[in-house]
């Protein structure tokens, strides 16, 4: 399958913020912006719009935006070491080459759960594994049918953990020894020991709770100080949790539902945050729901790990 690239230039707006730098808004008009990841090799930001469904790429300096229309809902993306991207569509993992537009399947993940779709995903610290989550995608009340999966370079998927309603918030601590993930429906963040060489996790324990009014936990990133920074999707904020799971800082954003942060930019100190616009919400003229935000100088974090798809790369781990 070949996807066609569409080009545009988006508007960038500067707003006052409480952290000492003007907050930048890129007017990208997403339905459900998600999964941002900084691409240091190409100096750009990639992310997805789950419901459009689209893959997007932004050059923040020029405001040049590319969009690729996808064949079905998309839940996660990641970067591969060879320049391709990994995309989690409804029940399958795919590989996409932005140079050619070619989209090809990598793995069957969750064909046995037709009411689910894949949601969220991050490459593990060494680049050997891609962890993806799933969620109950049915309308109305949701069931705990979601799971965490580990996908390897050969396209083999292994279920690591079950019993989640909306799997989200995948991240690792600085040395890669602990895995974090959340269940957005329940407002809970969990942590577990992580064994990178084997691609497996230990029994999870509750790390933090963040209910509706505090901001249910959506996507997340860990900063250089070991804080877990979570998008409070129900409260228009970012919640920064310390190593003990205490919320030590709350950063308000000019949108109702931020979805995921990531560090990037030339120095790695800028925080990009995607957001969504719910179908039942009315968007006022100039409203910022569904736009992309950048908080320059917000902090620092490790670059996103790259998935190693070649045998020579995998053997060197």
Automatic annotation (TrEMBL):
<keyword id="KW-0378">Hydrolase</keyword>
<dbReference type="Pfam" id="PF08450">
    <property type="entry name" value="SGL"/>
</dbReference>
<dbReference type="GO" id="GO:0016787">
    <property type="term" value="F:hydrolase activity"/>
</dbReference>
<feature type="domain" description="SMP-30/Gluconolactonase/LRE-like region">
    <location>
        <begin position="32"/>
        <end position="275"/>
    </location>
</feature>
<comment type="similarity">
    <text>Belongs to the SMP-30/CGR1 family.</text>
</comment>
<dbReference type="InterPro" id="IPR005511">
    <property type="entry name" value="SMP-30"/>
</dbReference>
<dbReference type="InterPro" id="IPR011042">
    <property type="entry name" value="6-blade_b-propeller_TolB-like"/>
</dbReference>
<protein>
    <submittedName>
        <fullName>SMP-30/gluconolactonase/LRE family protein</fullName>
        <ecNumber>3.1.1.99</ecNumber>
    </submittedName>
</protein>
<dbReference type="InterPro" id="IPR013658">
    <property type="entry name" value="SGL"/>
</dbReference>
